[in-house]
Design goal:
0% strand, 63% helix
Length: 101
């Protein structure tokens, strides 16, 4: 079965459980990313350099297995929302079924 670019099964699946592997500082950065702040704004709020923010974001992306700020933000939101987590689990199961077909 072929997926379309707008399909919920396209791209890497969200893994909300991975948020638990983040450090407290990485969680602070991720919360600010999910709130829509730029690296510059995050660095000002946290009183660190932009380079430090970028380093945190790189580690967050690696730990969450994502490639963008949007995916990271969605992973964070889903990890905090039981109903969303249930939807992600359902979508994963559907994607697995589609791949097997």
């Amino acid at each position: 079965m072929q997926t379309h670019p707008w399909s919920p099964y396209a791209g890497p699946p969200l893994c909300p459980e991975a948020v638990e592997d983040l450090t407290e500082r990485e969680l602070q950065v991720l919360l600010l990313v999910a709130s829509g702040y730029s690296n510059r704004e995050i660095s000002r709020r946290m009183t660190v350099t932009e380079r430090t923010v970028k380093a945190h974001i790189t580690r967050i992306f690696e730990k969450l297995g994502v490639e963008s700020r949007v995916q990271a933000a969605l992973t964070f939101v889903v990890s905090r929302c039981p109903a969303c987590s249930a939807l992600v689990a359902h979508d994963r199961a559907a994607a697995d079924t589609a791949r097997e077909a």
